[in-house]
Amino acid sequence: MSLGFGGEVADFYQRYRRGYPAAVFDALVDAFALTVDDVVLDLGCGTGQLALPIAAALSAAAIQGVDARIRRTAETLGAGSWRTAWTVAREARFALAAVITAAFGQVVAEIGAAMIVGGNIRGSTRTLTTAVALYTAQGDFGLALALGLVLLILALVVNIALQVLQGRGGDHA
């Protein structure tokens, strides 16, 4: 088996690299008093292994921050477990949207580990951020700028979609 930089390295890295135990993320959130407004930079973890668990920990904190009376009221009014969870999540929608935005930004902005682990190979491991870096290094500033604009538009669309979803959540009281 030849381990070139054709994508299989990134696949092996993702498959066989041990993840972090949940206690690590709980300790990070507690030690640094992280809130949904904080940004955590995932350096050297390769495939964004910190983004999802930290987002999950912050989401759990956002859900726990919802007044317990909302859950009890939903249950008293006959809501099932899914409807109760939806009601609580809707109450925490602004914090949850901030968590999603932060996690998306963290993953999209990752470039160093993507280039080191994936190798930036066209058609196999190249991402938008690594392509921008490559074309800038090659002096093709027009293409780098165009790809950067695509990345910017993608981020804008995700943020607008989250804003629209937040607005719709309050209309169904």
Backbone shape? elongated
List low-confidence stretches. Answer: 1-6
Distance between the termini: 58 Å
Largest sheet: none
Order of helices and strands: HHHHHHHHH
User: How large is the share of residues in beta strands?
Assistant: under 5%
Helical run tally? 9
Q: Helical proportion? A: 55-70%
Q: What structural category do the secondary elements indicate? A: mainly alpha
Instruction: From the alpha carbons, calculate the radius of gyration and give it in angstroms.
Output: 20 Å
What kind of oligomer do you see?
A: single chain
Overall mean pLDDT stands at 75
Number of strands: 0
Compile the SSE list and pairings.
Elements: H1 8-16, H2 22-31, H3 51-64, H4 68-76, H5 81-91, H6 93-109, H7 112-118, H8 128-137, H9 141-169
Helix pairs in contact: 2-3, 3-6, 4-5, 6-9, 8-9
Kindly describe this structure.
67% of the residues lie in helices and 0% in strands. It has 173 residues and is mainly alpha-helical. Helix 2 (22-31) crosses helix 3 (51-64). The N and C termini lie far apart (58 Å).
Q: Which terms would index this structure?
A:
elongated; 9 helices; disordered N terminus; 173 residues; 0% strand; mainly alpha
Summarize the structure.
This protein has 173 residues and is mainly α.
